[in-house]
Design brief:
Layout lengths: L1 E8 L3 H8 L2 H7 L3 E8 L2 E10 L2 E15 L3 E9 L5 E13 L2 E13 L7 H23 L9 H20 L12 H17 L6 H25 L8 H11 L1
Helix pairs in contact: 2-3, 5-6
């Protein structure tokens, strides 16, 4: 049996080469592989369940790598025994070439089949071999190009950043409090009323100059306190119409 083919893998050539020499990756990719053990840098032992047509068997064998030319390719040779089902032996040439940012993998396979498997005929064996090869390279491509896991804490940091952005947006979009016009804090009103009453009383001429001075100082202190209170609170406790205030002051005179 002879078979050739190629597969384009979306990964750098060095990465593909390392995958083809990694027992754990090969075990994931070989259809029916149960165990794969690396005996040396150029030898591996494998056990796999293989089904060809109506015949299924458990094959065990060894594989040897030769003509190693990293990361360009190598030659692989092996033999497996499947008990009453028969045996298989042969070799393959694997070549890796750069294809932009990807890798093009080409292979040439030559194998001999014996025992009951050989009685199934060439078409069945060829079709099974092509299916297994396609499954192997599809899985290899999936494993090699799989995205790397995100560093720990990335999701939490992204969530915090998103929350912070939302909070900033909420603050930015919140309406700004604007001091109402034509309105006076209650403390300012009290200061004006006190000043008006004091002026009205002093206008009678019955109080001495010292009392006038004391009341004047009291008015200044109350006005200063009212101004500080209004500046700090920035809130309207009570509102009064300016015209109404003017009429009240007019009556007090």
């Amino acid at each position: 049996m002879e078979m050739t083919g190629e597969q384009r893998i979306e990964a750098p050539r060095q990465r593909v080469w390392e995958a083809l020499n990694d027992p754990e990756i090969l075990k994931q990719c070989i259809p029916g592989c149960q165990t794969l053990e690396k005996l040396a840098d150029d030898r591996m032992r494998a056990v796999a369940l293989v089904k060809v047509g109506p015949i299924g068997a458990r094959f065990a064998g060894e594989v040897k790598l030769s003509e190693l030319d990293p990361p360009n390719g190598y030659r692989i040779e092996g033999e497996g025994q499947g008990g009453p089902a028969g045996f298989a032996k042969g070799g393959a040439r694997v070549q890796l070439t750069e294809d932009g940012l990807a890798t093009r993998l080409t292979y040439e396979v030559a194998a001999q089949i014996g025992g009951r498997l050989a009685q199934l005929g060439g078409p069945i064996i060829d079709a099974t071999a092509k299916q297994m090869a396609a499954a192997f390279f599809r899985k290899l491509s999936d494993v090699v190009v799989a995205p790397a896991p995100a560093p720990a804490g990335t999701d939490a940091a992204a969530g915090a950043a998103s929350a912070t952005a939302d909070e900033v947006a909420a603050v930015s979009s919140a309406p700004t409090a604007v001091a109402p016009t034509n309105r006076f804090p209650i403390a300012w009103i009290l200061a004006v009323v006190v000043a008006a009453l004091a002026g009205h009383t002093l206008g009678g001429g019955d109080a001495g100059s010292w009392m006038s001075l004391a009341i004047g100082l009291l008015v200044i202190v109350v006005a200063a306190a009212a101004f500080d209170f209004g500046r700090r609170s920035k809130q309207t406790v009570i509102a009064i119409d300016p015209e109404l205030l003017a009429r009240i002051l007019e009556r007090l005179r």
